[in-house]
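Morning F.,

Quick status update on the modeling queue. The single chain you submitted on Monday has been processed. Sequence for confirmation:
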Amino acid sequence: MSAHLRTALELAARAVPVLPLRAGKVPFGNCPGCRDNACGGRPNMRAAGPCRCPGICHGWAAATTDPDVINSPTWARAWREATGVAYYPGGAGLTVVDLDNPAAIAWARASLLATRTVPTTRGEHWLYRGAMQGANGVRPGVDIKSTMAYARWLGPGTGAMTALPDVVRALTVKEPARSVAVAVPAMVGRGECPHRTPTYLDRGIAMAEQRITEAREAVHATVYRTFLAVLSTHGRCGCLTDAHTARLFTAAQAKGESPRHCADAWTNALTTLGLSHV
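Structure tokens below.
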């Protein structure tokens, strides 16, 4: 039994859906009957599990916990050629924040809740309990691997796994096509303050300003997602002031956003997070 097959069976026994990876860290290609989606694919491509075909098809959707499938003759051929093991985070109730470089890791350490981390070739995987829609390129060097995505298995990692925070979910939220024009307060919310020192908040605002300033495309969407991330972290305790909001609006306007667009994006972010009436 190969080491990759042994790892796959161990993960499957822990209810983690798995599939083999070939050279290039990618899934095996579809069989002839499924090529170019000729078979119709998995239903809506939202559920994992092998299709009724002679191959390991449909990428992440091929992931399974069934040892009979994993040990089947078809998969046995794939394991002989496999260069790694992948797993389906969403099927295991997990989300992987894939940090691809040191800058992305620095952002995560300043912006996200600490959780279990796994070293990768170029960066780190941060694992959270809870599933969400996977997405690539949510910010420079950051991908989200959860539902409808796969992640390489690189070991169990270290640290206690924490619940998926709103700030991660906010990374994939697109601004509503229509915005609501209302007067925007500097901040709402009277919850318990988790920041401990003003430095944490100031650093978060500075990083948000930098993210807006460094945007090279999709500026309007970047501004909205940045506002959403700031409010996810700092929006429930009342720590944000007019000065903080002004810094964010100034950075956005320097990239060509109008004051009206800034106000609308802020209001939409408040509404998305349920803070507009707090």
